[in-house]
């Protein structure tokens, strides 16, 4: 390397060192470790094997003893999850002044409390698989759903992350759900509460906010937003109900947006494609976009024809 090149590198290094001393958030160098995203993703993948013991087993082994395999997995999960939880608890106000022994003890308590909830998680996921199979004529068997459906993976990840969220674990739940988001295009905040028999069909572009509450037997399609009506209040809105409540037996078709913490979609409601909703909907209602006007242009020799689309099933159910 020439002396001139080295001098230029030294000059840029000095420039950056001076820039780092400006005291901004991006300049901060914390005195403790950050959580390891890849380790957390690996924990999630191992939990997938625990949830579906016959589907994601290690194929390198010729024989397969469920108890032994699960025991080894749990040992690995416990070790790494306690370590990562110990790191992130330092973000929680209650533990910012705690010593390492107290944090270690709290992390162990949290991790074992979480693992004891796995049977409940599995119970809910079993209903999600049933909802997908019963609700999708394109599903030829349940194995196909478990192995390939992005909606189920997003739901599985949320159910794992939500339990950690309820245990007040910082960062880790969000890392998990954003990993699922990056793979599926489905953005579900770990704070979202979801009942049984939840089915996401297709899924791409779905956004579900933190304080959303979803009941049992709910089906949603691609492009649906369950969001906040406004976030202008910023941090002043933290902890407040900002996102809608979706009651039991609701179907929400593609492109619909349902916004606001006071918005309640009643039982047995069907929301048509592209609807924009900011007020509550009573039980049993059908919500649809007002009649659309379509334009057809066949060729340059014929005039443009306009046609009003009547509110019929062909328009209402967009899949």
Task: Describe it.
There is one protein chain. This protein has nine helices and 16 strands. With 319 residues, it is of the alpha/beta class. The protein folds into two domains: 27-185, Orthogonal Bundle (serine acetyltransferase, domain 1); 192-290, UDP N-Acetylglucosamine Acyltransferase, domain 1, CATH 2.160.10.10. A hairpin with an 8-residue loop joins strand 15 (292-296) and strand 16.
Task: Give a short summary of the structure.
The protein is of the alpha/beta class. The chain contains nine helices and 16 strands.
Under CATH, the homologous superfamily of the largest domain reads serine acetyltransferase, domain 1
Shape: globular
Rg calculated over all Cα atoms: 25 Å
Low-confidence stretches: none
CATH class designation of the largest domain: Mainly Alpha
How many distinct helices? 9
Report the helical percentage.
40-55%
Summarize the biggest pleated sheet. 5 strands, parallel
Spatial strand sequence of the major β-sheet: 1-4-7-10-13
Number of strand segments: 16
List the secondary-structure elements in sequence, H or E: HHHHHHHHEEEEEEEEEEEEEEEEH
The overall number of domains is 2
